[in-house]
Sequence to fold (567 residues):
Amino acid sequence: MTTRRRLAVFATGIALFAGLLTATFVVPFGLLAGRSAEAEIVADLSDHLVAITTGFTGARVLLFGAREAEGDVVVVVRGPRRPMVVRRKGRIAGIWVNEAEMRFQDVPAYYTVASNVPLETIPDSVRARHELGSGFVRMVPPEPAARDEVMAFRAALIRNMQGADLYYVPEPAPVAFLGDTLFRTNIILPANAPVGLYEAAIFLIRDDDVVSAQSTPLQVSKIGFEAWVFDFAHRHALAYGVLAILIAVVAGWLASAIFRKD
Amino acid sequence: MDIYLPIAEVSVNVFLILGLGGGVGFLSGLFGVGGGFLMTPLLLFIGIPAPVAVATEANQIVASSVSGVLAHWRRGNVDFRMGLVLLAGGFIGSTVGVWLFTLLKQMGQIDLVIRLSFVLFLSVIGALMLVESVKAMRGRRTGAPPKPKAQRSWVDALPLKMRFRRSHLYISALLPLTVGFFVGMMAAIMGVGGGFIMVPAMIYLLGMPTSVVIGTSLFQIIFVTANVTLLQAVTNQTVDVVLALLLLIGGVIGAQFGARAGAKLRGDQLRVLLALLVLAVGVKLAFDLVLEPDDLYSLAGIGTP
Fold:
């Protein structure tokens, strides 16, 4: 075999290999990209786990991503859903007393939104469907109640959550673009962030509708000593109580032994 | 330096808590009072949820009563027979109290009841202390003798008489049972040892000699607050050991300094100051109840699932 022929075979092999590669990877990818609009936006978090430890004073999680097509980017982060009770005080004999209450089911214990455009530019129907803005967070009282009452209690719930830094106020956080495709935003978790599974949902909005969406989980957990104490107190309440008493008795005895004067 | 309290689920400054424990401990060492009736409202002021404040304070009182009772025990100043009868009432009272506490918590009224109880007790105790200490100051100047004990007639007619040797008493067991019951209930709902109620009740109602009163009341308080701690831990999970430990460290150190300062300082003026402090805390709590809140609406259950 001459060197020339050997080279030709080698070249053919390379070509075949390249063709195979194209067939297996590039073509289906192209087909997928062409077929589905879902991949127009991709995003991820810098951290999927936020640990609440002794010195926890809040955390900042970076959300970054890219859009493959034109459109506005809205990011919604929702905490674990929980039942919540809102109570209203009234004046009875000169003292302010809780006199009415309303229960809501499945209220996100944390809620924030980030957007590169004012949320008002998005139609209400779209905002309601995807909970874009705290006014559109779904919270339903299980018992029927007058509409005015529900609205008042709902507004109070949102206001109180905002006061506790658990719902965003008053404007959505900015989504910053680097060039045309790359974007980033910060998710701020306050010191009192409730534990549980959070969800960050990223929406690409074009022509007054969501054209692509993606969601990614975020776990907020108590880690270390606090987690252990909390867990112990709730799971083995009796043992925890006994231990609390023992600690107190030993501490009291120690104190008296150390400072004994006679 | 902030620390995250695992049960209260709030971040607090370590030195603030140590300082509170130390300050209240100093006062308790100075005046020989338990300090729970000051500590629980102060915990409320710094934003500890009321149920956690009450349950945790009960836990801390276990410790301070243990260290207090040991000294009295060594001197033989504990009437165990009387203590056990008081304790029987205390167990029933604190168990009923925790049950009531849980019920009120579910109804959303526990905060109000805790605060109202404190307003009532602090203003009454503060006023009585103020009057008494002002009288004592005047009395010392004029040299008038203290008033004799009030006569007890209906008390002697009660059934179930028992002999209490250390206290030199032969009285109905119903009396200490009742006193124990009410103090136990207060321990459960207010997170106080109740010494400031029990000591006068033991002296004036039961007629016990002053020498055994404090030791016996401390003995009873240990077990009643331990019962409260256990029941709160089991039913409401509101005992924060980290908070209790911090308060305890501050309290123990403060109490030693207080006791030393108390030996050097004149008592009467200080009692007036304590009375004014108690009144001030009561008035602040009362104002919070009467003033229109910024937001009429409040949330329950942000932190807990």
Notes: Residues 25-37 of chain A have pLDDT under 50 and may be disordered. Residues 52 and 222 of chain A are 4 Å apart (CA to CA).
